[in-house]
Amino acid sequence: MADAEGKNDTCGTVCLKYLLFIFNLFFWLAGGAVMAVGIWTLVDKSDYISLLSSNTYSAAAFILIGAGAVVVLTGILGCCATIREQRGLLRVFFVLLLLIFLLEVTAGFLAYVYYQELNAELRADLKERMVQNYQQPGQEHITRAIDNLQQDLKCCGSNSSADWREGAWIQIFADGRLVPDSCCKTPTVACGDRPHNWIGGCISKLEEFILQHLIVLGSVGLGIAFIQIVGMIFTCCLYQSLKEEIY
Question: Which residues are listed as membrane-spanning (predicted)?
Answer without folding.
Answer: 18-40, 60-80, 92-115, 214-239
